[in-house]
From TrEMBL:
Lineage, top ranks: Bacteria, Pseudomonadati, Bacteroidota, Bacteroidia, Bacteroidales
GO CC field: cytosol
The name this protein goes by in its record: Cytosol non-specific dipeptidase
GO molecular function: metal ion binding; metallodipeptidase activity
A Pfam family it matches: M20_dimer
Catalytic activity: Hydrolysis of dipeptides, preferentially hydrophobic dipeptides including prolyl amino acids
EC assignment: 3.4.13.18
Cofactor(s) needed for function: Co(2+); Zn(2+)
Domain Peptidase M20 dimerisation residues, every copy: 209-292
């Protein structure tokens, strides 16, 4: 694992490896904050934690560069804590186990945290560099981006001093991102009547797993299976054909990750168990046929378990299941002016049903404020009709592209000069913190870039080694060629 520290460029990979040894799941950032403050102190860099729990670092201009515009490098310190079903990894206490797999760096049985640890490592590399020419530079390392962009949302005005914002959270090398989608958190809840389960009936533990999952913004257009949506189809069939009743449901664990696993407990007459297992096998074959060009596999199993004490009342079960079945999931519309980019989508991320309570979490996204309102009301419809209390929170607007950006034009020229080809300028469906920071600092000239990372928010997250060195070279040249104020 430690050989990762010796990859090129050593300054980024060494710092990234150090980050992988510090637990930093969203919501548990005390250790990584101490790590970053200690790093800054060791390198003589000014650093502090602001009221929003962001880390801010500052480094003065090198001699002769004082007249350059200040550059703010921005990344987020938290990571999505996903692990394989058989992993006992504790994200709050255990270091990651990164390793080199051919062209890629991955982590054993967990997310890698290159989203956005590579960006943080790049900021660290700039801050510790002694031979880099640059104007005034700042590092803004935000807190809890993955769970609601809380660090960016709570960033106070007046803290940042620079003129240019380089967001280092994009995930395809050779692309410069100049716009991104907005989003909002949907939380739906309701109670239900519990009734005793017939103890003369049988029970099955129904599990869907083995799906790819993925980033609910960047990969929502790939049509990957959503474990919660598949489970709704399974349950409705079991209810209709086997007189099954629902006892519990747990699916998904991160709002911004496509759920790759869901599990339920159903109660049914003993004489229906054989039919239910045949049906489960038929549904598995059907799902495999539907997703054979998208998913590696669809595992759908039913195991005999002791009959639980309680189950949902039939009326509540019907309303809840129909509402979940009817919830929109996936792409709603592409951007009319850029038909290759998703404009509006939703991810049915988390469902928890147990002990008389239902909790559903959905992440709607859109680069259009009017279509964001549309997708929210589309989701609200079935939930409200089924008696859910629905709350929307954490709304953030999309980042509107600025094609006349000075930093964009500089980077386009530098990229062509350094690599002999035109850089791709694009808009992403992923949510970036740029729009939130721009709302507080409207004078900033903003762009996003990064090396190639694939399958973020999954245990197959990986970073393409060969893209990190050119990313570093472009970042250094950008510092050296920063425009004059």
């Amino acid at each position: 694992m430690s050989e990762i520290k010796n990859l090129n460029p050593e300054c980024i990979w060494r710092n990234f490896y150090a980050l992988t040894q510090v637990p930093r799941p969203s919501g548990h950032l005390e250790q990584v904050q101490r790590f970053l403050l200690d790093f800054a102190k060791q390198n003589g860099v000014e650093a502090f934690v602001d009221d929003a729990q962001n880390i801010v670092m500052r480094k003065p201009a090198t001699p002769g560069m004082e007249n350059r515009k200040g550059i703010i490098m921005q990344a987020h310190m938290d990571m999505v804590p996903q692990k394989s079903p058989d992993s006992d990894h504790n994200f709050e206490t255990d270091p990651l186990q990164p390793y080199i797999d051919g062209e890629w760096v991955k982590a054993k049985n967990t997310t890698l945290g290159a989203d956005n640890g590579i960006g943080v490592a790049a900021i660290m590399a700039v801050m510790e560099a002694k031979d880099l020419k640059h104007g005034p530079i700042e590092g803004l390392i935000t807190a809890d981006e993955e769970t609601g962009m809380f660090g960016a949302n709570d960033l106070a005005k007046g803290i940042l001093q620079g003129d240019i914002l380089l967001n280092l959270d994009s995930e395809t090398w050779g692309n410069l991102v100049i716009g991104s989608a907005g989003g909002i958190d949907l939380d739906a809840s309701r109670t239900y009547k519990e009734v005793p389960a017939d103890q003369n009936h049988a029970a099955l533990h129904v599990i869907i797993k083995g799906l790819k999952g993925g980033h609910s913004g960047l990969e929502i257009n790939e049509g990957r299976a959503n474990a919660n949506k598949l489970m709704a189809r399974v349950l409705l069939k079991l209810v209709e054909t086997c007189n099954a009743e629902l006892s519990s449901w747990h699916g998904g664990n991160m709002r911004n990750a496509i759920p790759f696993k869901a599990e339920t407990v159903v109660v049914l007459p003993k004489e229906k168990v054989a039919d239910a297992k045949v049906l489960i096998n038929e549904l598995r074959e059907m799902f495999e046929a539907e997703y054979k060009f998208i998913e590696n596999q669809v595992e759908l199993t039913a195991e005999d378990i002791p009959t639980p004490k309680m189950q949902l009342d039939k009326t509540d079960r019907e309303m809840i299941l129909r509402a979940i079945y009817g919830l929109h999931n996936g792409v709603m519309r592409m951007i009319p002016a850029i038909p290759t980019v998703v404009e509006t989508s939703s991810n049915l991320a988390i469902i928890d049903i147990e002990e008389g309570k239902v909790a559903i979490k959905v992440l709607p996204r859109s680069s259009s404020e009017t279509m964001k309102e549309c997708i929210c009301k589309t989701l609200l419809g079935p939930l409200a009709l089924a008696g859910f209390e629905v709350k929307f929170s954490g709304s953030y607007q999309g980042w509107d592209p600025n094609t006349d950006s000075e930093i964009l034009n500089l980077l386009k020229c530098l990229y062509k000069e350094m690599f002999g080809e035109e850089v791709v300028v694009k808009v992403d469906h992923a949510g970036l913190e740029c729009s939130i920071i721009l709302n507080k600092y409207p004078h900033l000239d903003v762009i996003s870039m990064g090396p190639t990372i694939r399958s973020p928010h999954t245990t197959n997250e990986r970073c393409l080694v060969e893209t990190v060195a050119p990313f570093w070279e472009l970042l250094k040249r950008t510092m050296e060629e920063a425009p004059v104020k």
